[in-house]
Each structure stands twice: as structure tokens, then as C-alpha cells.
Amino acid sequence: MALKDYPFLDTPNTPYHDRYIQKIGDIIQPWDGDPINGYGIIGAPLSKSSISHSGAAFAPGTIRKSLSGFTTYSIEEDIDLNQLVISDLGDITMHVTDIVHSQNRIYETMKHLLMKNPSWKPILLGGDHSVSFPSIKAFSEVKGSVGVIQFDAHHDLRNLEDGGPCNGTPFRSLLESASIDGNHLIQIGIRDFSNSKAYRTYGEDNGVTMYTMKDVRERSILDVIDEGIKKLRNTVDVIYVSVDMDVLDQAHAPGCPAIGPGGMDSATLLQAITHLARHEKVLAIDLVEVDPTLDFRDITSRAAAHVILHYLKGKFM
Predict the structure, then answer these.
(1) Cα angle value 220/186/157 (rounded, 5°)
(2) Cβ pair 178, 271 in contact under 8 A
(3) What is the predicted pLDDT for the residue at 14?
(4) Which residue positions in the chain have pLDDT lower than 70?
(5) How many Cα atoms are found within 13 Å in the side-chain-facing hemisphere of 197?
(6) Cα–Cα distance, 208 to 186 (Å, whole number)
(7) Are residues 44 and 137 in contact, defined by beta-carbon separation less than 8 angstroms?
(8) Predicted local confidence at residue 120, as pLDDT
(9) 43: which of 28, 60, 123, 199 fits an S-S bond (Cβ 3.0–4.6 Å)?
(10) What's the pLDDT score for residue 286?
(11) pLDDT for 232
């Protein structure tokens, strides 16, 4: 007798399998070192640079796990991603104690990969928002002038003198290093009682476009996106999307270190990402500020996974 003679005897913890269902996890393949032609996930598990307590270093793993559980089929658009191959490049190893050194590892890794793989479309999983500075810096040095569309409750334009490079300074660092032009930075979802007048003024003085949550509530999110794209499309070579998950209301993203009321709902964010992804100059995205140690039933990681899915869906529309 052999195990095949017992069709209903299975190994422990074997998941249910339906022959008509394909999961996103089935089309994500470990990178083999060959040239990357298309989308590739890479983790930047850095959260020591967070102003507040953060376990965002654990987020790349939980987002990957959440992503793998969803199917490849979009019923809303009748689009199946099942022919897509997504490479998983793994995580960039962080220095144990040195934040600046860790950021430099992100910069050097991203720049080297982008130079060697010109067709790579990065999907970067943070980590806290500090990882966006080295990633976008590398992107700008390889791809040319970069426009950034930032979804965030905060400006992240804090000064660098009081606390050094942290998750509140990535866009200040990008502006002061001339990696991007302030006129090419568009912030969406800036929230009440979460910022200061000084940083609004700094942003305005540097040409940053800012849409508050009041703008998002009172206008169509698609109009906001179209206005941002119109501003960027003839002035930059490529567009990078940075999604701080705390742009979502605390009810939709309990696993963010800086939760608060009055934020965006997940449906609005997903609609925005899908619409934005349709533009041909949008070539990279990062997702940051998910803390699995604070989350409930992986709500925030699942939302981040859906941001990736809607980004990919938009590229197929």
C-alpha cells in the first residue's frame, strides 16, 4: 500500500486547493539573478529611524504573506494577472545599529539593481518612511528627473538638525540633496493636527504641491490625481509613487505607528492607485509605515497588499 491509495489522507496543514483559483503567491518567484523584465518586489526592513516606536522592519514579511493569499483575478475590471511574473528579490540587509549606513545600503542596492536591470519596475516594501529617501535618490540618479506622488498624513519635511535622518525627513533630504525638485513633489492626504505651520511654509516655499484631506473629501480623488499628473507629465522623465499607509484613517490601518482619525478610506486610496498606475511614466512604488506588531488580523498589511494589486491592475487597464 502507498499514500496514493488513501486519497483523503493529507499531510498536516496542507491548504485547500481549488483547481480554478490561482493566488498571487503562485506568480511571485524568487529572483534567480537573471535580468529582471518587469515587476520585482524588494524589502527594506528599516524602522530604527522611526520617531515613534515602530516594528515596521517586520512589514515586508507580513505584506508578502498577505499578498500571496489573494487571487490574481479582478472581477471589477475582468482582468486576470495570472500571466504576470513577479520577481521577489528578497530583503536588503540592514546594519544592526547604524541608520545612515542602513540607508546607504538601500541607496547602493537600489542604484546597482536599477543600472543592471533597466526594465525593472520596483515595488519596495518598507520599513518606515525613511527608506524612501535612498530609494528615490537612487531612482533619480539612474532614471533622470523624478516626479513623486506621496500619499501621506504628514509632510515628512522635518528639519535634519533636531533628530537626524528619520522617518519624518525623507522628502526634506530629497529636496536638500537636489535629488528631486520641489515642484515635482505632490503630497496627497495631509491630515489635520498632524503637522506644523513651519513645514507647510517650507514646502510651499520650495514649490511642493499639497492636497489636504479636506481637498480629498471635497473633490474627486480622480480629479486630484489627474491634476497632479498634468503638473508632472511634461516636466519629469519618470514618476515614483510613495504610499505611507498612515494616509488611511485609523479604522482602515490600525497597524501604523502614527494612526489618527480623519484619514482616507481604503476604497479611495485603491481607486487613486489604480488610476495613477495607468500613466506610462509611473514606474515605481513603495509602501511604508506598516507595523505588524500593532496590527489587528493583518488589516494594514492586507490593505498594503491590495495597494500592490490595484497598482498592477492599473498597469493592465
Answers:
(1) 130
(2) no
(3) 60
(4) 1-15
(5) 0
(6) 6
(7) no
(8) 98
(9) 60
(10) 98
(11) 98
Q: Give the amino acid at 181.
A: D
Closest CA to 121 of 2, 12, 283: 283
Report pLDDT for 251: 97
- Are 56 and 128 a contacting pair, CB within 8 Å? yes
Sheet of 185-190, strand order: 28-30, 86-91, 38-44, 120-126, 282-288, 238-244, 146-151, 185-190, 209-212
Question: In whole angstroms, what is the distance from residue 133 CA to residue 135 CA?
Answer: 5
Q: Residue 284 is inside which H or E element, if any?
A: strand 282-288
Using an 8 Å Cβ cutoff, are 197 and 218 in contact? no
In whole angstroms, give the CA distance from residue 170 to residue 168.
Answer: 6
Q: What is the pTM of this model?
A: 0.95
* Contact between 165 and 130 (Cβ < 8 Å): yes
Please write the tens of the pLDDT for every residue from 190-223. Answer: 999 999 999 999 999 999 999 999 999 999 999 9
Q: What residue has cell string 522623465? A: 237
Q: Identify the pLDDT of residue 164.
A: 87
Q: Could you tell me the three cell numbers for 285?
A: 512604488
List CB contacts of 122: < 8 A, sequence separation 6 or more.
Answer: 40, 42, 110, 113, 114, 135, 139, 284, 285, 286
Spell out the domains of the chain, with CATH numbers in brackets.
37-316 (3.40.800.10)
Q: What is the pLDDT of residue 49?
A: 93
Q: How far apart are CA 126 and CA 58, in angstroms?
A: 9
Q: According to the model, what pLDDT value does residue 10 have?
A: 60
Are 246 and 289 contacting, i.e. CB atoms less than 8 angstroms apart? yes
